[in-house]
Amino acid sequence: MKPPPTLRSLARNKPQPAVDPVAVLREFTGGVREQLAPGEQCEMCAVPIGVQHSHLADVQGHRLLCTCRSCYLLFTGEAASHGHYRAVPEHYRADTGFAMSAAQWDAMGIPVNLAFLFYQSDQGRYVAFYPSPGGATESLLDLTAWNEVVAGDPRLQELVPDLEAVLLRRLDDGFECHLVPIDACYQLVGIVRQYWEGFAGGEDVWQRIDEFFAGIRERGRG
Asked: Would 1 be classed as within a structural domain?
């Protein structure tokens, strides 16, 4: 006859609660030491960080977290936290062979000459946003035309879902296309939101946008 289970065996077989990686990190670092402004402390372990810092993507929550380098490196593997938190890649490259017609652009309904697109895994599709004075605004039009562009461009197909984006700037003679970390796109959104004035934006914001794209091109060469 099989002996009855002991309290010890029952405890051993009891399902264990899921581990919260954020709570574990804060336990090892002593918790929140002081309340700093957003962007001045790691949102995983609460240690102070500088202006230049790494980012994690909360894939399920659709948001970015400012992190110290140590926490960032913990989530560089896709299996870390079961994919809930992912380290945002840090490499930039230009897509010099990018081809898109004016009709395909117009079909996306982007009212300005700037846009970024990325594959959102929980929706199973591409999403398109453009920077505006109110923040990142999503185009809700059908992106069939964009899917055609991706199908004809192998470099676009290499982007990491949720973490990398296609950053586009429409020019008089075509498009400037960069493949960038998703946080770079939101840096551009912040520039537009902070400096846009009036109907057309004003000279200051477009000068800052020019400087932003010059930095993107430089990082792509590096």
From this structure: no
